[in-house]
Amino acid sequence: MVSRRLTPKIRADRGQSKIEPDVQAALLAAKRENPRRSIRRIRRLLERRGTVAKGKVSRSVNHRLLQAHGLSRPSGSASEPEERRAYVAESAGDIWYGDVMHGPPVPMGGRLRKVYLVSPMDDASRLIAHSAFCPSETALDTEAVLKQAVLKRGLPVKLVIDNGPACRAKTLQGIRARLGIHLVYCRL
Question: How far apart are CA 66 and CA 50, in angstroms?
Answer without folding.
Answer: 20
